[in-house]
Amino acid sequence: MVRQQLLQRASALTARHTLQTPLHNTVQRRLASGEMPKLTGAADNAFNRERMAVKQHAAASSDLWRKLVAVPALILASINAKNLWDEHWEHWEHLPPLEDRIEYDYMNIRTKKFFWGDGDKTLL
């Protein structure tokens, strides 16, 4: 069943690639590019000019909104990260040093020793 599906997909892909001519590839590349084509001949009518204007306006306004949203979002995210960083280390300042803390039986349970050093210390 799976082999049949793979063969069908492969044949469909090869059929698509054989149908594409050099002219088709050129047209696809031009449509995918960011430049707006010049309208000439029968294509130069009111409808197509309006569509071109709408596309240009959409491209400009989306670029504007991307700048208006992305820059403040990055600034706010960095401020939030700094605040969290400071709060974290302020909390650690109030705790006793690691050497002075009580070690309970349930802390630092090792089911297998580390294979370096004395087996109880991590690399960090």
Structural commentary:
Helix content is 63%, strand content 0%. The protein is mainly α and 124 residues long. The protein contains 3 helices and no strands. It starts with a helix and ends in a 30-residue tail after the last helix.
Q: What's the short story on this structure?
A:
The chain has about 120 residues and is mainly α.
How many E strands? 0
The fraction of residues assigned to DSSP E strands is under 5%
The shape, in one word, is elongated
Kindly report the average pLDDT value.
79
Please bin the fraction of helical residues.
Answer: 55-70%
Radius of gyration: 32 Å
Features:
124 residues, single chain, 63% helix, mainly alpha
Topology:
Elements: H1 2-19, H2 22-32, H3 46-94
